[in-house]
Amino acid sequence: WGAKNLVVRRSEDGGATWGPTIEVGDGIHAGGTTVDEGTGDILFFGHPEHPPKDSSMAPRTIYRSSDSGRTWAGEEAVFEKDGNGHVPSLHFSEVGITLRQGEHARRLLRPARVYVEGAGYNMAVFSDDHGRTWRPSTPFPVDGTGEGCVAELEDGRIYYSSRQHRFSEGEALLHERLHAWSHDGGATWTDPAHSSLPDGPAYRGEEGRGANYNGHFGMAAGLTRVPV
């Protein structure tokens, strides 16, 4: 669950060829790389371990590149606790985005999650100072979620697509992705529902923890973004 090798490769021809490995820094990286479209900086996130032993205390390091990924410098960013007293983990989430519309334009927003005993939950973190301070959103409205992704829609809403790992006793073990919406730049999430988008094979009845567990994985956190 994560090797300590923060490295990147660069392509200058649209991904047809790739250059040599570039060392970024120490730690474990598992998603969430974000381009700040306001400055051009690339933000790369690292943890010392996975999962964090204490989600309230584990350090989170940002590695920043201001030259299109050629060189990187680490910085300790501030990540505020959520309403439940947890600092979100940055692992196993999709890339972040720069919001382009409305009063929160230029805000950096990326999915995140909280590891706690039991279910845990998805959420997001956002920054209005180019990635130096990160504030937590409210939790995704369904517990037992993880591995999420976000996209800004043309009407300004933020779409959140989430996997559900765990289910309450008696709850239907659905294998479709969950989605929810934000109308305030990713600070809160509402109207959760299972979509028609499958997330791996249907539950096979061999485990009691749902369709998206122990080898049943399908889409992970992936979300293809197209201009709509």
Automatic annotation (TrEMBL):
InterPro entries: Sialidase, Sialidase_fam, Sialidase_sf
Domain Sialidase: 2-199
CDD domains for this protein: Sialidase_non-viral (cd15482)
One term under GO cellular component: membrane
Pfam family, one: BNR_2
GO molecular function: exo-alpha-sialidase activity
Alphabetical GO biological process terms: ganglioside catabolic process; oligosaccharide catabolic process
Name the record gives this protein: Sialidase domain-containing protein
Annotated organism of origin: marine metagenome
